[in-house]
Amino acid sequence: xxxxxxxxxxxxxxxxxxxxxxxxxxxxxxxxxxxxxxxxxxxxxxxxxxxxxxxxxxxxxxxxxxxxxxxxxxxxxxxxxxxxxxxxxxxxxxxxxxxxxxxxxxxxxxxxxxxxxxxxxxxxxxxxxxxxxxxxxxxxxxxxxxxxxxxxxxxxxxxxxxxxxxxxxxxxxxxxxxxxxxxxxxxxxxxxxxxxxxxxxxxxxxxxxxxxxxxxxxxxxxxxxxxxxxxxxxxxxxxxxxxxxxxxxxxxxxxxxxxxxxxxxxxxxxxxxxxxxxxxxxxxxxxxxxxxxxxxxxxxxxxxxxxxxxxxxxxxxxxxxxxxxxxxxxxxxxxxxxxxxxxxxxxxxxxxxxxxxxxxxxxxxxxxxxx
Length: 371
Ligand SMILES: NC(=O)c1ccc[n+]([C@@H]2O[C@H](COP(=O)([O-])OP(=O)(O)OC[C@H]3O[C@@H](n4cnc5c(N)ncnc54)[C@H](O)[C@@H]3O)[C@@H](O)[C@H]2O)c1
Prior knowledge:
By secondary structure, this protein is an alpha/beta fold. It folds into two domains: 31-141, Rossmann fold, CATH 3.40.50; 150-304 and 326-370, Dihydrodipicolinate Reductase, domain 2, CATH 3.30.360.10. Helices cover 33% and strands 26% of the residues. The chain is globular and about 80 Å long. It has helices at residues 40-51, 65-75, 83-87, 102-111, 126-138, 153-162, 187-203, 306-318, 328-347, 354-360, 366-370, and strands at residues 31-36, 55-61, 78-80, 92-95, 115-119, 143-146, 167-175, 207-215, 225-232, 237-243, 250-257, 261-265, 270-275, 279-282, 288-292, 295-299.
C-alpha cells in the first residue's frame, strides 16, 4: 500500500543502503528510527525518540489511519499505513504492536536488515521467540526486548545494593486495577514477565523448584491473578505475584537479606534499606537516654525516565557499541519461565521437580537458561 504522508513532508527516495543487512552501525549520522504500532506504548516510544540526541525519527506506522496521521503530525514525521514501507527508510524500529503480532512484524523487520527493539514479551510463544532470536543472528541485527524495568533507576540501585548483601528471599509484587488494555494475554505475559526477568537477574542462580497458582475475574478467558514461588540453586527463595484485578497499583520488589530488608518501589522511584539495630544511647555514667531500634536508609536514585534510558541503550547498540543488556536470549529465558508458571497456575499443579523443570525449560539447561 502507498505510504500515507502526514502534512506535506517530502518522502525521501529509498535511501541507498550499504547492504540489505544490518544497517546503521558505526555511522556518525543520526540513526534513522521508526515506530510500528503507536497505541498505548508506541506513543511513548515516539515521544522519547522525537527528543533523543543523534536520532532521526523518520516515521510512524499503524493500521489505525486516524491515529497514525494525528500522531505523525504531532511529531512532524511521515505516517505509513503499511509498516513494510517504513522499513525501507530506517536503520532501526521500535515494535509496539499487540503481542500476538510480534513474531510476524519482528521477522519482517529483521529480514529487511532493520535493527529491532520489540516490546515485551518477546513473542506470544516460545517457538516464535526462538525464531526471532535466530533471525536476528542470521541477519546480523540487534534484537532488544522492551524489559523496561531493567532501566528503572530504582531497579539499578536495588541491583547495586544487593551486590554486597546476603540475599535470602525476594518478593515481587506487580498489581493493577482492571483495565481494557492488553487483555489478549494472561497477567503472566503482560505484567509478571517484567518481574520474572528482574528476579532471574537478581537471584543469579538456576531455578530448581517452582509452584504457581492463579485465579481469574468474571468471564475472563485468562488468569488475572497469579502467584508463583521459586526456589533457586543458591538457596534464594522468591515469590512473584501479578494481578490485573487489584484496586491499587503496586510495583515493588523487597529483598530480605541476612543484615537488611531492602524495598524498591518502581512507581515512586524509591529505595529504602531497613536495618534492625538495637543500640542504647547513654551518658558517660551509663544512664540510658534513648534506645535506637532500627535504621532506615533512603537510597538516592536518579530521575531518568526508564524508556529514555532503554532507547538510548538501543541506539548505542545499533551504532555498534554493544549487545543489548536485554537481548532476545534473555527475553526468551523469561518467556520460558513465564510459560511454565502460566501452565502450572492453570493446571493447579504442585511443585515441579528439578527434572520436570529441566524438561519444561527446553534445550538450554537450567544453569544456562536461568543462571
Ligand atoms: N514495556 C512496557 O511496560 C509495556 C507497557 C504496555 C504495553 N507493552 C507492550 O507493548 C505492546 C503493545 O501494547 P499496547 O498496550 O500499546 O497495545 P495497543 O493496542 O494500545 O497498541 C497497539 C497498536 O498497534 C497497532 N497495530 C496493530 N496491528 C498493526 C500492524 N499490523 N501494523 C501496524 N500497527 C498495528 C494498533 O492499531 C495499535 O495502535 C504489547 O506487546 C505490550 O505487551 C509494554
